Amino acid sequence: MKMNRETVVGEALDLLDEVGLDAVSTRQLAKRLGVEQPSLYYHFRNKKELLGAMAQAAMDPHATAPLPAPEEDWRAWFLENTRSFRRTLLLRRDGARLHAGNAPGGGDLDRIAHKMAFLLAAGVPERDAQMAMLAASRFTVGSALEEQADTEQANTERGGTGQGGTGHDVGADHPVVPLIDHESAFEAGLALILDGLTHRVEGTAGVAG
């Protein structure tokens, strides 16, 4: 296997899906690639840098989605953009944990600027657009964290590993209870964020009129 930066990241993400974020190590990754562990440091100075590259690569499905066109309805776009973010986080085991705390890179900043310009052109006040995008992002990461944690716990109770399936949520002082419908809960929360933003936009338009 020819080893370059992209190969290392791809294999690291496959390892993530197999063992989970806590078990990912440069030792295991080197063994998977059939190389000595120090060889990895030619591409990444340390594990933190590797995890950052993994987080960026894991977001490719969302990061490469089409940017909004001027004629699009901003409300429909806001919903789909946030849903796309959630879908991408859930594609990888521990995807939300991997993503959390990673700052956007140069290309990401350009895309964010385009999205902000789209919202402003649609009549959304700048401060409201910024806060709504931030709130939607953090809400989505939090929702995905909870969903993936529940999935891991359910798999542990069944004696399995990885994502997928349903299970039960066990608290320290509570009996086993069914998992919540994470997608429905996410959609309800997202609707509240959009309703609040829409109210602000319509209120601003009324004052301006």
UniProtKB/TrEMBL annotation:
A biological process term (GO) from this entry: response to antibiotic
Annotated ranges, domain HTH tetR-type: 2-62
PROSITE patterns assigned to the protein according to its UniProt record, in alphabetical order? HTH_TETR_1, HTH_TETR_2
Q: What is this protein called?
A: TetR family transcriptional regulator
**What's a Pfam family this protein contains?**
TetR_N
Q: Does the keyword Iron-sulfur apply?
A: no
Q: Does the keyword tRNA processing apply?
A: no
Instruction: List, as start-end ranges, the regions of compositional bias called Gly residues.
Output: 159-168
Q: Which UniProt keywords apply?
A: DNA-binding, Repressor, Transcription, Transcription regulation
Q: Where is this region: Disordered?
A: 147-171
A GO MF annotation of the entry reads:
DNA-binding transcription factor activity
**DNA-binding region(s) from the entry:** 25-44
Task: Quote the SUPFAM superfamilies the UniProt record gives.
Answer: Homeodomain-like, Tetracyclin repressor-like, C-terminal domain
Cited PANTHER family: HTH-TYPE TRANSCRIPTIONAL REGULATOR RUTR, TRANSCRIPTIONAL REGULATORY PROTEIN
**Which superkingdom is the protein from?**
Bacteria
